[in-house]
Amino acid sequence: MTARTAIGPVIHVRGLEKSYKELKVLRGVDFDVARGSVFALLGSNGAGKTTVVNILSTLLKADAGTAGVHGFDVATQAADVRESISLTGQFAAVDEILSGRENLVLIARLRHLGDAGRIADDLLARFSLTDAGGRKVSTYSGGMRRRLDIAMSLIGNPPVIFLDEPTTGLDPQARLEVWQAIRGLAEAGTTVLLTTQYLDEAEQLADRIAILHEGRILVDGTLAELKRLLPAAKVEYVEKQPTLEDVFLTLVGAAGNAPTSEHASEDRS
Ligand SMILES: Nc1ncnc2c1ncn2[C@@H]1O[C@H](COP(=O)(O)OP(=O)(O)OP(=O)(O)O)[C@@H](O)[C@H]1O
Ligand SMILES: [Mg+2]
């Protein structure tokens, strides 16, 4: 294995630029992600979030700038980067015909890991999919699919995981399930970079939040730091109304075992 530094940020991005023909998508993107933290890259449709993730996961080459992941340079040490990461793309990559367990066993075998069955069973348990493990994925809800997708990307214990819009198209319950799974990753010491268009998702999950806008990182900080960018909150006395999400979750039931067939399906927004 190539030498790498164990200290410093696990993801290090400086001056990243990328254009598609005339379209300048990234115009000098800089950020760092600390080891074992959750970093959220926020941005509107077309801001360039997937482009950043694809460059960091070596699927795409930047036009300029540097990026290091787990101490390896994405341009010159791509194979080492790939060994250190997993990518869960914007569109679920699970095989519909296979069962959840078969999907996991397949990936474990492809990665030449011994005892693929045990690895699959461990991951099913970790993502509360044990009962559904034997069923075809085509019968899974969107949230179950997403959790399986994330479970698949953990095979081989990569230290860094990229989640591109992990909850887009999911209903509030399924989103909570996926959030739980992502929190578990961070607690286990995995570094997570996720992209999202949902402000509340970043608020809920991220240690640091960066907003990608017009090709650059507009702001980057903890939630508290970002909130300080706005004028101090005025003290007002109002009755606190439940949010729509509170109402939805109270009526539908926020706790665990949601009905399995009624979640919204994955959809490109
Ligand atoms: N292969 C490509 N060829 C040409 N243009 C592209 C290509 N890939 C992305 N783009 C353009 O680059 C811009 C950034 O795309 P990107 O997919 O990175 O955005 P995003 O922030 O992930 O958006 P979304 O929230 O919709 O997923 C968009 O304008 C998109 O149309
Ligand atoms: Mg995208």
UniProtKB/TrEMBL annotation:
<dbReference type="Pfam" id="PF00005">
    <property type="entry name" value="ABC_tran"/>
</dbReference>
<keyword id="KW-0813">Transport</keyword>
<dbReference type="GO" id="GO:0016887">
    <property type="term" value="F:ATP hydrolysis activity"/>
</dbReference>
<keyword id="KW-0067">ATP-binding</keyword>
<dbReference type="GO" id="GO:0005524">
    <property type="term" value="F:ATP binding"/>
</dbReference>
<dbReference type="InterPro" id="IPR003593">
    <property type="entry name" value="AAA+_ATPase"/>
</dbReference>
<dbReference type="GO" id="GO:0005886">
    <property type="term" value="C:plasma membrane"/>
</dbReference>
<feature type="domain" description="ABC transporter">
    <location>
        <begin position="11"/>
        <end position="239"/>
    </location>
</feature>
<dbReference type="InterPro" id="IPR003439">
    <property type="entry name" value="ABC_transporter-like_ATP-bd"/>
</dbReference>
<comment type="similarity">
    <text>Belongs to the ABC transporter superfamily.</text>
</comment>
<dbReference type="GO" id="GO:0046677">
    <property type="term" value="P:response to antibiotic"/>
</dbReference>
<dbReference type="InterPro" id="IPR017871">
    <property type="entry name" value="ABC_transporter-like_CS"/>
</dbReference>
<protein>
    <submittedName>
        <fullName>Daunorubicin/doxorubicin resistance ATP-binding protein DrrA</fullName>
        <ecNumber>3.6.3.-</ecNumber>
    </submittedName>
</protein>
<keyword id="KW-0547">Nucleotide-binding</keyword>
<keyword id="KW-0378">Hydrolase</keyword>
<dbReference type="InterPro" id="IPR050763">
    <property type="entry name" value="ABC_transporter_ATP-binding"/>
</dbReference>
<dbReference type="InterPro" id="IPR027417">
    <property type="entry name" value="P-loop_NTPase"/>
</dbReference>
<keyword id="KW-0046">Antibiotic resistance</keyword>
